[in-house]
Amino acid sequence: MPETSATISCRNCDTQIAVDTFVKSFKVCPHCDYHHYMSAYERLDLIVDAGSFEEYDANLYSIDSLEFPEYPQKLERDVAKTGLRSEMLSGIAKIGGHSTAIAIGDVGFIGGTCGSVIGEKVTRCIERALEGQLPLVIVSVSGGMRMQEGTLALMQMAKTAAACVEYAKSGVFYISIVTDPTFGGATASYTSLGDVIIAEPGARVGFAGPLAVASLREELPENFQKAESLLEHGFVDTIVHRADMRQTLIDLITFVS
Ligand SMILES: [Zn+2]
What we know:
The protein is of the alpha/beta class. It folds into 2 domains: 1-36, no CATH class; 37-256, Alpha-Beta Complex (2-enoyl-CoA Hydratase, Chain A, domain 1). It has helices at residues 19-24, 40-47, 71-82, 116-132, 150-169, 210-214, 227-232, 245-256, and strands spanning 7-9, 16-18, 54-55, 88-95, 98-105, 136-143, 174-183, 196-199, 238-239. The strands form 2 sheets. It has a 7-stranded mixed beta sheet with strand order 3-4-5-6-7-8-9, with helices on both faces. It has a two-stranded antiparallel ribbon with strand order 1-2. It binds zinc ion. Residues 10, 12-13, 15, 29, 31-32, 34 line the site of zinc ion.
């Protein structure tokens, strides 16, 4: 098949990248190594054994319980855009032959913000892992808690954190992968409770975003809230390039199995 001449522009360095090269390099810029947005389905293909994914809770979706302006339209728009019914894909898959409970967020769905559906899906995913004594992998991306769901969104922090505690007591193994961007209540709950926390290079991870923090202090340190700085300060355990993510997961899960 002839190679296409179409190109895309790197968001970080503006280099023109051939689409074929971009896809083959897992949407990582070959010039500056910037890790571009990946959908939940693309991440699933990247890390699980082909054809092994069994989706759960596919019919959970958000409703506009607070009658928040324009929320139903935004939900409809992003269902059409992402092919997902909610901001997270979850189920059971094999990784290197090991059955694993997995949940993957998608920032293309209302900014990956964490509403009641993410909380319920994460919680059920953890409970399935606990029941089956399976390793658990959660790939997080989050613009914070979903303001359109108010307290219903905020209470998901306590619910998911409680499920993580129960899972941790059972002695199985939770790998939390943080990708760009992961902010707000997700960081303050299930995302930070992994036995191992892996970040993609350059991922921004934090609670309040840099603009909010900058309003409280004059100058922010270099690499503020970036994976490399978080590794230095012990908030993440390792940084793994997207091309090495699947093998790293296989190695970790095999090690503890
Ligand atoms: Zn680049």
